[in-house]
Amino acid sequence: MKRTAFALFCAICILTGCVQKASVTFESFGKLSTGEETTLWHLVNSNGASVDVTDYGCRIVSICMPDRNGKIEDVVVGYGDIKSFEEGDRFFGCVIGRFGNRIDHASFTLDGVKYEVDANESFNGEPVQCHGGKMGFDRFVWKGEALQEPGRVGVRFYRLSPDGEQGYPGNLETYVTYWLTDNNVVQIEYDATTDKPTVVNLSNHTYFNLRGPEGCYVMEHMLQVDADTCVQNTTRYCPDLLLPVDDSPFDFRTPQRVDYRIDTPNEHLRIMKGMSACWVLRDWDGTLRRAASLYDPKSGRGIETWTTEPTLLTYTGRGFNVTKYHNGKHGPIDKFAGMLLETIHFPDSPNQDRFPTTVLRPGEKYHSETEFRFYTE
């Protein structure tokens, strides 16, 4: 039964007097090539689970959670030092913004004004912006402050994205808050305000492997998604068709191995060259609700993903290889070694009226929440 092992683990800790006090500490994480200092924040709950986050790119460096036997290990795939984060794959663990995922043609029109945003991808000569452009939110050092409340500890990061940055209008004041609760939930809260109409779509880009540092073929994990519809992309990786998941490789309404239909002939699999998908979450209304569950049968670790966002994106690391990603914190990162559980508004929303709006206006507040609820069974 879910959480039984965790509950037993907590009871043993209480009886043996080994419950520790939750804490927030920080230390230097080294300098960037620009000379900027970075900081690593260490969150520990009363059960000994922990989360490490850095102010560079407002990113998660590690999440250490117990397996079914109580062994606490890191379940995040990526780097462990500031040089690798700066020079390697830029999207490990970071916040993505000002607009997460893609904007087709690297442009959008808002209130009759066309905005050209920085294009960092090109498909047959057509420009596309991905994750905020060449200098997205992941490329900056944020200001951090420690937080502590009954039952949880955290760190809040702040950054002002100036008017015109990467082509976006408006001075955007942005806060990203990470919490670790005493019941092993990692909570992420995003808040933003603007002084001009703009578009905002924030998310986190952490890769999970619930097996822990030993890693594995993440396709062996069991995935369940609360969605009846999936997006088929264009060849520019932007939304095209919304299709029912019935009889498709994206039918995860019941738990399945991630690769259970990976060899099925399917246009979206062909375009994306693998299991990279965007699900339309069932009955979305902007409240916090469950989106998916990812479970590793060997370790007994699982994550329930809860969110206020309308879609869930996954990517299974098909681009990883041990030569290019030789400097992973637990050793070389191989193909299919980690999986995204990216909660977000629809990609290319500023250009597609059929999707919920991502427009933020002066006097309004952008707010989004995602929770990773860890469990064992």
What gyration radius follows from the Cα positions, in whole Å?
A: 20 Å
What percentage of the residues does DSSP assign to strands (E)? Answer: 35-45%
Overall geometry: globular
In spatial order, strands of the major sheet run: 13-14-15-16-31-26-25-20-23
Distance between the termini: 6 Å
Using the coordinates shown, work out and report the CATH topology.
Beta-galactosidase, Chain A, domain 5
What is the percent of helical residues? under 10%
> What is the CATH class designation?
Mainly Beta
Overall CATH architecture:
Distorted Sandwich
Which structural class do the helices and strands define? mainly beta
Q: Number of folding domains?
A: 1
Number of helices: 3
Average pLDDT taken over every residue? 94
| Largest sheet, strands/sense/barrel | 9 strands, antiparallel
* pLDDT < 50 stretches: 4-17
Oligomerization status of the protein chains:
single chain
User: Count of DSSP E strands?
Assistant: 31
